[in-house]
Known about the structure:
By secondary structure, the chain is mainly α. It has 2 helices and no strands.
Amino acid sequence: MDEPTDIRLARGQRLTDALREDLELYAVAELEDRIDLLRSEIARVEAQIDRKRAGRAAADALFSPRLA
């Protein structure tokens, strides 16, 4: 029986898996690298939130009723 080659992960599954990793297996330098990666990801997510909020604000300004 063949194994499926196209296994789809649920949205956010890789992050969930990473949060469950045993950190005891990592050296200090590896943990510091992990922190750097996580900080970069936080910055990327915050930038996306800002873009979405700006887009929403622009849509609200365009479609909100004008008061005279």
